[in-house]
Amino acid sequence: MQTPTLTGPPHVPLRHGRWPVHKTPRWLFAVLAVALAGAVVVGLAHHPSQAQRAADMNGFLHDMTADVGSCAAGVGESLTSLHRAGALSSSDLTTAIHEASYGATNCMPANNELLADLTQYQVSESLASYHLDRVVQGLVTWAFPDAMHVQADVAATLGAHGPARVAALAKLQVDLRRLDGQRAYVDKIMQTAVGGTSATAKLPVLPG
Known about the structure:
This protein is mainly alpha-helical. It has one domain: Methane Monooxygenase Hydroxylase, Chain G, domain 1. It has 6 helices and no strands. It has helices at residues 26-45, 50-83, 90-106, 113-118, 133-159, 162-197. Helix 2 (50-83) packs parallel to helix 5 (133-159), helix 2 runs antiparallel to helix 6 and helix 3 runs antiparallel to helix 5. It is elongated. The model has no long low-confidence stretch (mean pLDDT 89).
């Protein structure tokens, strides 16, 4: 009986060429192009033009003036009445006291819709580098409690006599210094932003 001859698998010579190259599908190039275009658009959105920043700053100053305007007007009127107190008739003095008391309540966001809006104000992203959110909060503080206290002090001073008037006037001077300090704080930030953006609008008028 003859032993069968064992045969192995056929010999396949090793290939020494390069690895096969897979072509990138065209649709992938299209996706990458769209993504790149989107990145460029986003980049432009985060780098607004000087004209855009100036327009946004003008809008910001307009909004601040409108929102704090009625409170600021009340402060100015109250201080004017105080300076003219000696020349006021009895009825005019009563009116001045009433107006100062009303002005104090009008500087509270709970009683003033525009100030309530100011507490929720969002600064445009194009102005983020100028930290104008501090101005928004600073103006809220200028109105409440600072301007509220000043007008309440005016009402108390106008209605007081003798030692009570001296005490009320002393408190008014303290609160006026605080009000002026808050005004200087927000004005400095806004002036820096105006200079950086070349905005043309005026800063809010804040009496004190």
